[in-house]
Amino acid sequence: MDERITIDVDRLREALIRETGPAAFAGSPWAIVDVAALEDAGPYELAREAERRGWDLRRFEA
């Protein structure tokens, strides 16, 4: 089954950064790199990262 949805990429990016950000503020160098990568990531990379984290992308349906 090939289910396609339109994702609000800005909301997805914000949510990913919001989840990763606290580790960056705690001084984790990997989290700082992750936040920078999320800020520059394209829609496809953001969706892949959300899926890797086990998120349901329907939460970000436009």
Briefly say what this structure is.
This protein has helices at residues 9-25, 29-40, 43-52.
Give a structural overview.
The chain is mainly alpha-helical and 62 residues long. It has one domain. The chain is built from three helices and no strands. It has helices at 9-25, 29-40, 43-52. It is elongated, with a radius of gyration of 12 Å.
How far is the N terminus from the C terminus? 21 Å
Oligomer state of the chains in this structure: single chain
Structural class: mainly alpha
Could you name the ranges where pLDDT drops below 50 across 5 or more consecutive residues? none
Strand content: under 5%
Strand and helix map with partners:
Layout: H1 9-25, H2 29-40, H3 43-52
Which short descriptors sum up this protein?
62 residues; mainly alpha; single chain; elongated; 0% strand
